[in-house]
Design a protein that fits this description.
The chain is built from eight helices and five strands; from the N terminus they run E-H-E-H-H-H-E-H-E-H-H-E-H. The protein is an alpha/beta fold.
């Protein structure tokens, strides 16, 4: 199996769906955010605060490079990782990119109580989420091989939809 790269806005369900997919098909799971936190020994919020966003984006590129030639991974990508051309190219090289879509209202409901998403810290409201999402959506859609709407669907239904779409492409 080629790698499956789950992309999308914060709270779109990348980590949740990656866990479900890893149970349904023989694959290894990579949580980009978590791996970076472990490698740096720091929370993402602290990495942003201490070194800035660009430094974090470099870490994402380095991590994607490190397994881009391996196969069989389901990768829960950092929400902004695909914004860099180099990162999108690394994902395309050896994998299928799945965009998990959700409305700003749904995203807000899913992330409103969290404090570990530095991009949203101090901006936790539907209007900000909508504004940033509108900036990013064209990019997510342009690089994706498969787009899945997640509003009102449970995790099992979304995972099955992804597996079917992947199979249809092969
Ligand atoms: N289809 C769904 N239906 C209902 N709740 C969901 C669904 N998918 C995810 N959630 C919930 O939304 C929250 C955010 O999900 P998750 O952490 O998987 O998003 P993410 O895309 O990995 O976010 P991040 O980019 O910040 O890592 C979690 O509490 C999760 O349980
Ligand atoms: O959308 C983003 O830019 C981010 C999403 C998270 O997954 C983390 O990678 C980080 O908080 C940045
Ligand atoms: Mg996640």
């Amino acid at each position: 199996m080629k790698n499956l790269y789950l992309i999308g806005f914060m709270g779109a369900g990348k980590s949740t769906i990656a866990r479900a997919l890893a149970k349904k098909c023989p694959s290894k799971r990579i949580e980009m955010d978590q791996l970076i936190e472990e490698q740096q020994g720091m929370a993402i919020t602290d990495i942003f605060a201490a070194h800035g966003e660009n430094y974090f984006r470099d870490l994402e590129t380095e991590l994607l490079r490190s397994f881009s030639e391996s196969t069989g991974y389901v990768v829960s990508c950092g929400g902004g990782s695909v914004l860099r051309d180099e990162n999108a190219a690394l994902m395309k090289e050896n994998g299928c990119i799945v965009f998990l879509r959700a409305t700003p209202e749904t995203i807000y409901e899913r992330v409103k109580d969290s404090t570990n998403r530095p991009i949203l810290n101090g901006n936790m409201n539907v209007e900000y989420i909508r504004e940033l999402m509108e900036k990013r959506r064209p990019r997510y859609e342009a690089v994706a091989d498969i787009c899945v709407d997640t509003d009102g669907k449970d995790v099992d239904a979304i995972s099955e939809e992804i597996l079917k779409a992947v199979e249809d492409r092969s």
